[in-house]
Write a structure and sequence with these properties.
Layout: H1 9-79, H2 83-91, H3 95-105, H4 112-117, H5 131-178, H6 184-206, H7 213-217
Helix pairs in contact: 1-2, 1-5, 1-6, 5-6
Length: 219
C-alpha cells in the first residue's frame, strides 16, 4: 500500500483542519452578515437624521426670514409713528417669535425715530430670532454624523471578517490539496502550512469584535 493511503498523522491533521476551518469560515461569514446588517441600519439612521436636520434647517430659515421681515416692517412703522400698523405686524408673530421680539424691542432706544437721526447713536440692531430651530438642526446633524461613523465602523469590522474567510479558504485549499499528494514529506509540509494558516486566522479573528445574534436582531 502506498504512502498516500496510509492513515498517518498528516491525514488526521488535514481532516481536523478541514473541519475546523469549515466551521470557522461559516462563523466568520455569519459575523460579517451581522455587521453588514448593523452597517445598513446605521447608514439608514444617518440618512433619516440628515433629512430631518435639513427639514428643520429649512423651516427655521423660512421662519427666521419671515420674522426678520416682520421686525423690519414693525421698525419702519414705529419710526413713521404708525402705531396701529406696528401692532399689526407684531401680531403676525407666533408666541415663540413674539417672546424673542419683545426681548429685542426692550434693547431699543425709547425714541427710535430720534435715535435713527442721531449720528452719535450706534446702529439699531436687528433681532436674531428662532435660534432654537437651527440648534435642533445642528443636533440632528451631529447625531447623523455619529450614526454614519457607527456604520463605517460596522463596515470595517465586517470587512475584517470577510478577510478571515479568505484566510480560512486558503487553509481549506492547502489541507485538501495536501491529502492528494503522494510524497509523505510534501503532504506533511502542505498540511502543516495549512495548520499554520488556520492558527493565524483563528488568532486574527479573536481580535475582531463579535456581535451577538440577538443584538443584531433587535436593531
Amino acid at each position: 500500500m502506498s504512502d498516500r493511503h496510509q492513515p498517518d498523522l498528516a491525514d488526521i491533521a488535514a481532516g481536523v483542519i478541514l473541519a475546523v476551518a469549515g466551521l470557522m469560515s461559516a462563523w466568520a461569514t455569519f459575523q460579517a452578515s451581522l455587521w453588514g446588517g448593523n452597517q445598513a441600519a446605521a447608514f439608514a439612521e444617518a440618512n433619516r437624521l440628515q433629512t430631518e436636520a435639513s427639514r428643520l434647517e429649512i423651516v427655521a430659515t423660512q421662519r427666521q426670514t419671515t420674522a426678520l421681515a416682520v421686525a423690519h416692517a414693525w421698525l419702519t412703522a414705529t419710526i413713521d409713528g404708525e402705531t396701529a400698523r406696528a401692532r399689526f405686524y407684531e401680531r403676525q408673530l407666533d408666541p415663540a417669535q413674539r417672546r424673542l421680539f419683545k426681548a429685542w424691542r426692550a434693547q431699543l432706544p425709547a425714541d427710535i425715530a430720534a435715535a435713527k437721526e442721531d449720528p452719535d447713536q450706534p446702529p439699531i440692531p436687528m433681532p436674531t430670532l428662532l435660534r432654537d430651530g437651527r440648534e435642533a438642526a445642528i443636533r440632528k446633524r451631529t447625531a447623523a454624523e455619529a450614526a454614519f461613523q457607527e456604520g463605517q465602523t460596522a463596515n470595517d469590522i465586517g470587512d475584517r471578517f470577510v478577510f478571515v474567510t479568505v484566510i480560512l479558504s486558503l487553509a481549506l485549499f492547502l489541507a485538501g490539496t495536501g491529502q492528494l499528494l503522494r510524497m509523505r514529506i510534501a503532504r506533511t509540509i502542505v498540511i502543516g502550512l495549512a495548520g499554520v494558516i488556520l492558527l493565524g486566522g483563528a488568532l486574527y479573528s479573536l481580535q475582531i469584535p463579535r456581535l451577538p445574534y440577538r443584538a443584531a436582531a433587535d436593531l
